[in-house]
Structures are given as C-alpha cells and as structure tokens.
Specification:
There is one protein chain. The chain is an alpha/beta fold. It has helices at 43-48, 58-62, 68-74, 76-80, 92-98, 105-114, 133-151, 169-182, 193-197, 201-214, 232-237, 247-253, 277-281, 284-289, 293-318, 321-329, 333-343, 346-349, 371-379, 434-449, 461-471; strands at residues 2-10, 13-20, 23-27, 29-34, 53-57, 85-89, 119-120, 186-189, 220-223, 242-245, 256-259, 262-265, 360-361, 389-392, 404-408, 412-415, 427-428, 456-459, 479-481. A hairpin with a 3-residue loop joins β15 and β16. The longest helix has 26 residues, at 293-318. α7 (133-151) packs parallel to α8 (169-182), α12 packs antiparallel against α15 (293-318) and α19 (371-379) packs parallel to α20 (434-449). Helix content is 42%, strand content 17%.
C-alpha cells in the first residue's frame, strides 16, 4: 500500500517519506516521464543520477506491439530496467484525443496492475480551463465514479485518486472532499498543464489552493505535469509533494536549455551557466555541435530539475522556502502574479507553517504579507503592558523599561525581551521603506486596540512621522507623537 509521512514543514510545503510497498522515496519528489519508444536517458541511467521514481503511460504500453507482451509477462521494472517506484498514468488524455472507447476505466486499471505498476491511476476526465461550470461538474462526477469503480479492483491502497473540477474553485473543493472520503493517500491534482503552458500561474494557485483546503492534510499531493524547475518552489509552497516532468526531454528535442530561472535556446548561448557534469565537460559550442546533443541536453535538463528539488527540500528543512519562492517568482512576471496570489491565502498558510524559522529576509513589499509577519501581528495583543506604552522607532531613543517598545518593520513594536528571538532577532531588513513601515503600523494598531484606556506615545522621528500618522488615522485611541 501507499503511505506518506511528513517530516519538516515550511509554509504548506513538507519534506517527507513516500512509501510504496517496500520502497521509500524522499519528497518533494520528481518523477521523470518515460516513453518506452523514445528514451533519451535510459531509466537505469536515471537511477544512477538519483531518480527514485518515474512515471510512464499505460495506454502507450497497451498499444505497443513492441512492449505490450513484454510488460505483461516480465513487468514494467524489468522492461524499463528500473528498480525504484513506477507510477503509470491511465492514458485518459490519449483516449480523449484518439477516441479509443475500447480502452475503458476497468481495462486500464487491470492492465496497470498486470504490468506491475505501483501507483495506479484510474481513467479520470481532464477538464480543460474553458469548460463551463455545468460541463466541469458533469466531468467531475464521471471522474469520481471511475475512482470508486477502480477501488473495487485495486483494493490494496495502490490507487491514486485524481482531483478534477477545471478552474471552478467550488468544484475543486468538492473534488477534494470526495477524494478525501475515499481514503486515498496519493492524490494528483489534474488538468493544470494548460494553465502552466499559458503562464496562468494565478489561476494555478487558485485551483491548487481550493483543492488543498479540502484534501486530507496527510495526503501526498501530485501536481500533474508540473515539469519546469522555475515553478517547483511555488508549487511546493502550496503543499504539492510530487511533480512529473516530460519537459526535460521535450525541451531537449527543441534545443532548449533549462535553468531554475527559465530556459534558453542552446544555439544562442556562448557559455553554459551550470555546474552539472554535462556543462563542465562541454563548452557551449561543443554541446551545440555534438551528435549526442539531444541526449546531453536532456541529461542537463533533468539534472537541473533534480537539483532544484533537492534545493527545495533543504529550504523546507531550513525554514527558508519563502526566500526561494520570492527569488524564483521574480524571474517571470506571471510567476510573480502567482506568488502574489498565494500571499492572499496567508491566513490558511499559517495553520501549517512553522512558528520559528532560521531567518526572515525582507525582499520587497510582498514580504510584508508573509506568514511570519501576519503571525507576529496576531501575537502582539499578548504583550504585557504596565501603565503606559511608549513606542520608539529609534534604537537610541527612550528608556528600556516595561513601558518601552522598540519598532522593527515590517513586524512593528516589540518589547526588549524579544530582541533576540524569531522573527525580530533573525530578520534582515534593508533601509526602511514606506511599505514596511505601514506593515509595522499594523502591529502598532494591534497593540493599541488590545490595551484600551492606556496612554500611548510614539516616537517616529521626522522622516516617518507623516507615514505613521496616516497609517493610524482611523484608530480610535488617544495617542501622541514626539
């Protein structure tokens, strides 16, 4: 059966262990997509590169004169030469394209079991983004019916339960609830490739967060088709644990060179800005002229993708994923749209985010909306106050006593005793700007509202006096500025 054990957490991301039968893989996890007819990198070689699991297509195997009988008699692991976890997609997309009604849900599930797949996917209906609500709801109903039908055949916990619903958030939530009721542990979020192909990362965040709100917190979430390393960090922050990539090979065939911040045309590169074995043993010109260019480029692309997954796992463990998300999402305006959309869910993200972390780096106005800032503001009403409140925005101004609060944006006021604790003591803030001051003023408002009847004095200094006054203009409290 499939089980999932969460270990470290940051935002909604988790590092963990995905157990499939007697095999274990670390998450976040990347599944390279394998087409048995076109193997730029043989699975055996992938395993030496550190690949712990892969995904292939049951429909392609079922229609292959070359591989069908071998897979049925020998099993996928022997045919592909891979000892790790193998997941199979049902072939629902191919069925929809080719209209092969003879390949039913029961057929694909039984075939996947027969060829030795360890994560089996029923024939869900991938609802495109332009499907209206009524049509998407009908297709979701079919998908759920097929999941339940498949569970009567695959009753040992090796069935994945896809979450559909198009771009309709109510349907994604409904799908999450119904999938949760099935008890499935491995839950792919499907039909999102068109959103990523058209750079609709804001819609992607909306869809994933809707599903995540109702799926079991203990489920392992697979984001179907999320293949480019530039968006892995954003997806992980939403709580996605598994990704699959055909992009490493597709991009190679098109002569495209992957980096964590985007892709380049190999023909236009004079340098290879990477430390992988391909790039350290070839110059840009040598790689362009190599008869094995496609295979070498695919290997580079896969190594870059695996390295990004490892970087994300380390960031989660260190509690620095927000910084990585911020860095990656500033490489493309549409990714930045997705990042800003994710920040709208900070109330939800706080419910699973770590309370204490290694550091907080301020990287612009988006940092003011991070979970660490919101959580700190919610904590401020618990501060002990004696008789009066004095808030100073200068470390040199005012006495250090029970009535004095220092000010550190974007968090706001803090008592001297918290100076060395997270997040005050572990935050790196550049020269103050208006956005971070306004965010800190939200903390002042929390302190004032929590202590009615207590006089407040705020030492702003000349530079920030007008900004602070404007931020506090609606507070029903008698206070003075000095």
């Amino acid at each position: 059966m499939i089980t999932f054990e969460s270990q470290h957490k940051d935002i909604w991301a988790r590092t963990g262990k995905l157990r499939v039968g007697d095999k274990i893989a670390k998450t976040p996890l990347l599944l390279p997509v394998i087409n048995p007819h076109i193997q730029l990198i043989p699975p055996e070689e992938m395993q030496k590169m550190g690949v712990e699991a892969l995904i292939t297509n049951a429909y392609i195997f079922s229609k292959s004169e070359e591989f069908r009988e071998r897979a049925m008699n020998e099993g996928l692991h022997a045919v592909l030469g891979f000892d790790g976890i193998i997941m199979t997609d049902s072939g629902a997309f191919q069925q929809s394209v080719y209209g092969d009604v003879a390949f039913s849900n029961k057929d694909t599930v039984r075939f996947q079991r027969q060829i030795g797949s360890e994560i089996i996917v029923p024939m869900d209906v991938a609802t495109p983004p332009d499907r209206d609500h009524e049509g998407a709801e009908e297709e979701l109903s079919v998908t759920m019916q097929r999941i339940r039908e498949a569970m009567e055949i695959i009753d040992d916990g090796h069935l994945a339960a896809p979450v559909q619903g198009g771009i309709h958030t109510d349907l994604r939530k409904k799908a999450g609830e119904e999938v949760r009721e099935t008890g499935a542990v491995f839950c792919p979020i499907g039909a999102v490739v068109p959103l990523m192909e058209s750079y609709r990362y804001r819609d992607l965040v909306t869809v994933v967060m809707a599903a995540k709100q109702t799926l079991s917190p203990g489920a392992c979430i697979h984001l179907f088709g999320a293949g480019h390393p530039s968006m892995f960090a954003l997806a992980a922050a939403m709580g996605c644990d598994v990704f699959d990539s055909a992009a490493y090979a597709l991009y190679a065939r098109e002569g495209r060179y992957m980096t964590p911040s985007g892709s380049f045309k190999l023909a236009e590169l004079s340098e290879l800005p990477c430390a992988c074995e391909v790039c350290r043993t070839h110059s840009a010109r040598e790689l362009q002229a190599s008869p094995d260019k496609e295979k070498l480029l695919a290997k580079h692309n896969l190594l870059v993708s695996l390295a990004e997954i490892a970087r994300i796992r380390q960031s989660i463990q260190d509690g620095t994923l927000w910084e990585l998300v911020d860095e990656r999402c500033r490489n493309h305006p549409r990714l930045l749209d997705g990042y800003r959309e994710l920040l709208k869910y900070n109330d939800l993200l706080m419910t699973r985010d770590s309370v204490a972390k290694r550091r907080f780096f301020y990287r612009g106005s988006e940092s003011c909306k991070r979970t660490e800032v919101i959580r700190y503001h919610e904590m401020i009403p618990r501060f002990s106050v004696e008789g009066s409140i004095h808030i100073t925005m200068s470390d040199e101004a005012g006495p250090v006593d029970a009535t004095t609060f220092r000010f550190k944006p974007p968090f706001g006021p803090y008592p001297h005793g918290l100076k060395e604790t997270f997040p005050i003591g572990q935050s790196e803030i550049p020269e103050w700007d208006e956005d971070m001051i306004k965010s800190g003023c939200n903390g002042i408002i929390q302190l004032i509202n929590a202590n009615p009847g207590i006089p407040v004095t705020i030492h702003t200094g000349e530079r920030w006096n007008a900004v602070v006054k404007d931020a506090l203009k609606d507070v029903e409290k008698l206070y003075e500025f000095i």
